[in-house]
């Protein structure tokens, strides 16, 4: 059975501002600020390589003054500051990065990015496409359904209908009703004074919609609240209009036009060099012909648990590996990561193995020959982690390997990805172990209770036999009507 096509729609403005405020003090040698470009490109690269969308577009807002919401309510988003001066000159470079990556950049005059995203998401979802909207904007939770989800990459959280219900207390189609009553300070949507999001959620859940709340306001508790609902009814209706995304943006884009394409490296690499993004240049540059690059990293504590992450790159191909051990030191996980990467190779290869573990790299490139000459590799208990060093020594003869050390947490894209893979594997492993332990404890408790009940349970037949057994050699007194007095 063929899986549904996967489309990712990225909220460009949300991404840009997250990048701008999330990465600071990055500039070229001549002083040009590049923090937003760097953060945006790095987050986009992570999305491309970890989620691997089949179809992708980045959607931008027009100037806020040129939207229909500003026409019907001039104060809409009027509380927001102008774009920071050092961000403004970075926007053209972000668009150049997208152009070099062959990623479509979309916008529609008069409409916000949310409206474009909502229109395309609903259209393609109706055609059977699985749509992921990449944003941190809560307003877009109103478009979620079984085929449309929101992905907040900063929190690594994906939201479907159940998550929307947990967040707002109402299903996605009523989110705009809640925002209409509560307002939204971020967008300067007024709502109804004195009604916050929690109260708005309770009212919409109770009455069914904003209009129903206004119609039955006499049943709402609190004299002032009832008065505000009466006085500000039209303001609430306007607020709902402002908070409701549009699904009718006139944008005719076939899905095929959004299909993911390979980057245009002849444009991208010179651009990254101009921006002085050396680490990102490495991330986008394929390994040399005939060479497999293996990035490996381990994560663990002295007594465990531990996880490992590995990325193999060959030409334009890439593969991720990760795993978990309940009791393992961080050193063992570093060695295990390299072993798993080398074991994934099915034939002899030229390999660059890169790790931020000096223990691994120095061990294989400097210490191993001395261990072999001194016989320590094979002498029982002569080396810590001897079993892993032996395995690495055997694997190193199967391939032509260059061992390279990279500085950890210094911006190397693949090293950071391996670190996330290792930690994620450790966390998931811990949860799995805890779940198994809880299940085993529950089963043990249930077994003990069953045994206790079995020990206390007296067979019915035994009770009847005991009650009916009367020894013929015993004499019992009888009462006046002849019944025996047994006690």
CATH-assigned fold name of the largest domain: Nucleotidyltransferase, domain 5
Amount of beta strand: 5-15%
CATH architecture annotation name of the largest domain: 2-Layer Sandwich
Given as residue ranges, the uncertain stretches (5+ residues, pLDDT < 50) are 460-487
Query: Helical region count?
Result: 18
**What does the main sheet amount to?**
6 strands, mixed
> Care to count the β-strands?
11
Helix content: 40-55%
- For CATH, the homologous superfamily of the largest domain is named as Ribonuclease H-like superfamily/Ribonuclease H
Strand order of the largest sheet: 3-2-1-4-5-6
Radius of gyration from the alpha-carbon trace, in angstroms: 33 Å
Q: What's the domain count?
A: 2
3D architecture notes:
- The protein has 487 residues and is of the alpha/beta class.
- The protein has two domains: 6-169 and 250-257, 5'-nuclease (Rossmann fold), CATH 3.40.50; 286-487, Ribonuclease H-like superfamily/Ribonuclease H (Nucleotidyltransferase, domain 5).
- 46% of the residues lie in helices and 14% in strands.
- It is built from 18 helices and eleven strands.
- Strand 5 (148-152) and strand 6 (157-159) form a beta hairpin.
- The longest helix is centred in the last third of the chain and has 44 residues, at 413-456.
- The termini are far apart.
Secondary structure: elements and pairs:
Elements (H helix, E strand, L loop, with lengths): L5 E6 H11 L12 H17 L3 E5 L8 H5 L18 H10 L4 E2 L6 H14 L3 E5 L13 E5 L4 E3 L1 H8 L6 H8 L14 H11 L2 H6 L7 H9 L1 H11 L21 H10 L3 H7 L6 E10 L5 E9 L2 E9 L4 H14 L6 E6 L2 H17 L11 H11 L3 E6 L7 H44 L3 H9 L19
Parallel strand pairs: 1-2, 1-4, 2-3, 4-5, 7-10, 10-11
Antiparallel strand pairs: 5-6, 7-8, 8-9
Helix pairs in contact: 1-2, 2-4, 7-8, 7-11, 12-13, 14-16
């Amino acid at each position: 059975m063929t899986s549904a096509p996967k489309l990712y729609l990225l909220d460009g403005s949300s991404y840009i501002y997250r990048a701008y405020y999330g990465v600071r003090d990055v500039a070229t040698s001549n002083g040009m600020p590049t923090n937003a470009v760097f953060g945006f490109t790095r987050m986009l690269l992570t999305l491309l390589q970890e989620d691997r969308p089949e179809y992708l577009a980045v959607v931008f807002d027009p100037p806020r003054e040129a939207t229909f919401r500003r026409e019907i309510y001039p104060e809409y988003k009027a509380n927001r500051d102008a774009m920071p001066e050092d961000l403004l000159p970075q926007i053209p470079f972000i668009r150049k990065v997208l152009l070099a990556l062959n990623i479509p950049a979309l916008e529609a005059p008069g409409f916000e990015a949310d409206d474009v995203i909502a229109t395309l998401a609903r259209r393609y979802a109706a055609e059977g496409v699985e749509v992921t909207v990449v944003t941190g904007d809560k307003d877009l939770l109103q478009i979620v359904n079984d085929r449309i989800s929101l992905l907040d990459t900063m929190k690594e959280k994906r939201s479907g209908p159940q998550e929307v219900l947990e967040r707002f207390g109402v299903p996605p189609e009523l989110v705009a009703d809640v925002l209409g009553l509560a307002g939204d300070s971020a967008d300067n949507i007024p709502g109804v004074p004195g009604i916050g999001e929690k109260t708005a959620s309770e009212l919409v859940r109770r009455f069914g919609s904003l209009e129903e709340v206004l119609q039955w306001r006499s049943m709402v508790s609190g004299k002032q609240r009832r008065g505000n609902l009466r006085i500000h009814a039209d303001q609430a209706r306007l607020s709902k209009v402002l908070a409701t995304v549009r699904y009718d943006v006139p944008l005719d884009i076939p899905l095929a036009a959004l299909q993911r394409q390979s980057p245009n490296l002849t444009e991208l690499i010179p651009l990254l060099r101009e921006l002085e993004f050396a680490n990102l240049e490495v991330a986008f540059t394929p390994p040399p012909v005939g060479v497999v690059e293996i990035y490996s990293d381990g994560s663990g504590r002295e007594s465990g648990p531990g996880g490992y992450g590995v990325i193999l790159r060959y030409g334009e191909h890439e593969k991720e590996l990760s795993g978990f051990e309940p009791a393992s030191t961080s050193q063992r996980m570093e060695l295990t990561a390299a072993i798993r990467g080398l074991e994934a190779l099915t034939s002899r290869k030229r390999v660059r193995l890169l790790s931020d573990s000096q223990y691994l790299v120095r061990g294989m490139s400097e210490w191993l020959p001395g261990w072999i000459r001194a016989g320590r590799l094979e002498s029982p208990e002569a080396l810590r982690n001897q079993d892993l060093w032996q395995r690495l020594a055997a694997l190193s003869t199967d391939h032509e390997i260059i061992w390279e050390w990279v500085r950890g947490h210094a911006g190397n894209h693949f090293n950071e990805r391996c670190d996330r893979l290792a930690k994620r594997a450790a966390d998931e492993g811990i949860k799995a172990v805890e779940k198994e332990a809880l299940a085993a404890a529950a089963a043990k408790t249930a077994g003990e209770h069953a045994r206790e009940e079995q020990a206390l349970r007296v067979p019915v037949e035994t009770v009847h036999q005991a009650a009916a057994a009367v020894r013929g050699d015993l004499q019992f007194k009888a009462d006046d009507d002849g019944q025996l007095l047994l006690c």
